[in-house]
Automatic annotation (TrEMBL):
Matching InterPro entries: AAA+_ATPase (IPR003593), ABC_transp_ATP-bind (IPR050319), ABC_transporter-like_ATP-bd (IPR003439), ABC_transporter-like_CS (IPR017871), Oligopep_ABC_C (IPR013563), P-loop_NTPase (IPR027417)
Membrane topology: Peripheral membrane protein
UniProt keywords, alphabetically: ATP-binding, Cell inner membrane, Cell membrane, Hydrolase, Membrane, Nucleotide-binding, Repeat, Translocase, Transport
PANTHER family hit by this protein: GLUTATHIONE IMPORT ATP-BINDING PROTEIN GSIA, TRANSPORT ATP-BINDING PROTEIN
Residue ranges annotated for the ABC transporter domain, each copy included: 7-263, 302-552
Entry protein name: Glutathione import ATP-binding protein GsiA
Keyword Nucleotidyltransferase (UniProt): no
GO cellular component: plasma membrane
Protein localization: Cell inner membrane
Catalytic activity of the protein: glutathione(out) + ATP + H2O = glutathione(in) + ADP + phosphate + H(+)
Function: Part of the ABC transporter complex GsiABCD involved in glutathione import. Responsible for energy coupling to the transport system.
Biological process annotations from GO: peptide transport; transmembrane transport
Amino acid sequence: MLDTPIARIENLRVEFETKDGPVVGVEDVSFSVNAGETVCIVGESGSGKSVSSLSLMRLVEYGGGTIAGGRLIFDRKEGGEIDLAKTDQSLMRTIRGNEIGMIFQEPMTALNPVFTVGRQLTEGLRVHRGMSRAQARARALDLLKEVRIPEAERRLDQYPHELSGGMRQRVVIAMALACAPRLLIADEPTTALDVTIQAEILALIDRLKRETGTAVVFITHDMAVVAQMADRVVVMFRGNKVEEGTVEQIFEAPAHDYTKVLLAAVPKLGEMRGKSWPEPMKLLGSDKHEIKPIVGSDDLLLRVKGLTTRFAVTGGFFRRTVANVHAVEDVSFTLNKGRTLSLVGESGCGKSTAGRSILRLVEPIAGEVVLDGTDIMALAPGALRRARVDMQMVFQDPFASLNPQMKLAAQVAEPMRNYGLVNRSEMDDRVAMLFDRVELPRSFLRRFPHELSGGQRQRVAIARALALNPKLIVADEAVSALDVSVQAQVLNLMLELQADLGLGYLFISHDMAVVERVSHDVGVMYLGRIVERGPRAAVFENPQHPYTQALMKAVPIADLRRRKTEKDLNFKPIPSPIHPVGYEPGPSVYKEVDPGHFVLTSESGY
């Protein structure tokens, strides 16, 4: 590792102009990053981590911020050191993407929905590297293979909405790496990724850093990722740096109280061993009343049987169906009132599609879904709309699921207004109560989504889902974009609401430690099928299916002594879920290995 800093941030101060006057996003932050070094910046959402990185890219101005003080020194390949804070935007356009690459947090907003993946990947190569269209396409194909996207050739001609969240994030990573930048800023690059892909992307960034001497600024809230990746750690809190040190110092001898809180809030795989029911996180400094473990009830809330969802792949001049994506294949399970069933698996395994199919946001081709005695599949559109009062969804990307043009109070009130459940005077009180419930200040009622951090936006989405007092909430990666302390608070909030209101949760996630913390039952999905299902303790402590075992092995652990090496991450590529028209896989056949613990047998139509 060289001791020459590629970038130095000195006394950075960033201010944002709001209706209520100027707000300081970053007060006084200084740190440097050397060639071949990874500096992890950790802290809560709203602490100024992303603002610091957007300042380095000089993108903060486009979000309404101004760099009010400080210097941003960057050592260019040719031309020596320059102060990015004073550089004009035309030179910044040359530096951005070419010398400083950035991986953004929300892949759906980082990609342009009207251009194909191939067009977006090749754009930087053609602008900065002067490649021909054919050369750029060949390089783009290599990049997609490097970030392990299946069927890379086909993906180049697809649009972002045709890919799963995890795949979109891998495209964004490939775009950032395209021009082999000197400095790579990774803003929560693995939040939307499942554990196996996350482990491989981390290994990929680590390998690039070693081979090319790229400096990496890695912004994350996941302390397990920090333990895996960091050389040095900068801890931020409310716009200030509160602690900086080597990764060993931060993990083994944290000095600041906030760092201690942050480390205490990390759910660790194996913590729930020997416990029968989900339990809330114990947060330091939290004076809230203790929530009892949630036992749930024996009353059936949801029964899903033989659920199958396929998407047509069209082609040719007449856009005929030439193949089908078998997204969900013969999925069956039950969920009782006041209990949580988690579906886990890699991106593209069908877990989000299963959640949407149950709510009929995506129309399944077969199967039955019965919610509290109502056959959801048999409902006509009008009756389905009325039934949706009982089933709500919290989506993965809160920025995409909230309306950017509506104030937050109006968005949380909208479901109640749509269904005419409460009158005008009660509505304001109920919205304010929901904001209190999800621990957001009432001053946020007048704000718009872009004025909030990712974690705060997700709480608004949860408040909106609760507005109608539903019986079932499908939480699709609801906490994957949140930092650890906020994630712990939101999980505790969800468990508290479950205890108080008897909610049933279908919790879709790739984060095994979170799943272990909140679940009563777990279903592991692979290629559209549930390959293993049973009580949490049985699946986590005695995994039987080879895929479940591989998934457990890939989980990053917030412990320096258990860092993964690249040879630990030996995953088989996932076969394609696309099959020709007329292909009919066999039914799912299960073997009961323990009471209630089922494993898919090999004779199921694979």
